[in-house]
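Ticket 4471: requesting a sanity check on a complex prediction with magnesium ion. Repro inputs:
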Amino acid sequence: MTTPIIELKSVGKSFRSADGSARSVLEGVDFTLSEGEIVALLGQSGSGKSSMLRIMAGLIDADQGQVLYRGLPLHGAARGISMVFQSFALFPWLTVQKNVELGLEAQGVAPEIRERRAEQAIDLIGLSGFEGALPRELSGGMRQRVGIARALVMEPEVLLMDEAFSALDVLTGERLREEILGLWESGQIPTKAMLVVSHNIEEAVMMADRVLIFRSDPGRVRAELPIALPRPRQVESTEVRTLIDEVYGLMTAGTSRPGRTTEKEAKLQLGDRLPEADIARIEGILELLVDEPYHGRADLPKLGEETELTDKELLDVSIALALLGFAHLAYGDISITPLGEHYVGASNQERQTIFGCQLLEHVPLIAYIRHGLEQDRSGDLPEDLFLKLLRFTLDADDAERALRVAIEWGRYGNLFEYNFHTGMIQMPKDEAAVAE
Ligand SMILES: Nc1ncnc2c1ncn2[C@@H]1O[C@H](COP(=O)(O)OP(=O)(O)OP(=O)(O)O)[C@@H](O)[C@H]1O
Ligand SMILES: [Mg+2]
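Returned structure tokens:
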């Protein structure tokens, strides 16, 4: 039997948008973190992963459902739960030692004891000798170690890590991750369970006993993959590679072309986020795909390695290609469609025409903008109009991002123009002239 430590039961959370309307970020989240396990949480940006972690840490309250810690309702930050953030806010005027001691000081732990415990934590995380250093004298990797020491010094039974390694360069991130796993496996830390939010699929597969995949709008668990391999795991082993493929497959499921999937969310809605992929990247990946050695089909993790794109960038461009009908996604593979192949062989002008047609068919926001321009006698409309529309479903940043993508894509597809000075979206000049 496994012993639950933190339980979320039908947890929901909404945030109020700038215009006062409530936006649901998490809905019906059921999740149990049990003793002895490491769980990884993956999901698109904005799907509510950090919000879920903050709820589990007691930093914010859920507005629906229940959060139990050791069987009792969680009220506020709990002693046994520590969180590590992507960028740990270290106090610049305090030494490493003092930064690590802060949490203990807040708990009223006596100076001698907190000094000793901080030294131990600093030692564990490989920073011995730097106790007296100031944060600015440290590299990014070392600063993140201080952040982790600050969490470890509290001797948490639950460690919640929110993209703790993603601000670091790849090698530093990997090393730190392995060290934490080493501490975990050897029992040098009293931590009984970890939840790790990541954008890095390999990291999730290397660390976790199970991987949860969040879906967006509102966030909830979409899929779960148990991983039974013992740690330490070999990153190049067939088992790990197969699992990575499987996770890619799960993450892209339901984002393939409408009609080819069973999931409801396959078809984009007007107020949805758009994948952040610029034209150069979309075309670059397509061109790469048709060529040696892929011949139209590639394993996403391999493609990620070759292109040095991050998982998020690669997923965004893959999803864009699938949306536009240029590629299919299945089981962690991307394969080019006949339309995609035709596109690669086409002239620039023909490419733009195809692009425009696909946008009108598959991206409702762009079709809506174009339709609005056709209806409007003056042939131009302020971007704010569309931002307001998006704000019904997205927060300010996401709305802005979705509109930026729509404008870039739409301009390329010759569906409209955009005036960077006035923020007006306009009919293309040649078409406006014809209409008169
Ligand atoms: N305090 C807040 N007030 C209003 N909106 C918020 C607040 N915190 C988060 N949100 C919104 O809730 C949504 C989910 O945010 P969250 O940070 O949980 O996502 P995430 O999955 O961690 O994303 P990322 O991968 O980019 O870190 C986002 O749209 C975000 O802008
Ligand atoms: Mg986050």
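Notes from triage: The first strand starts at residue 4 and ends at 16. Leaving this open until the requester confirms.
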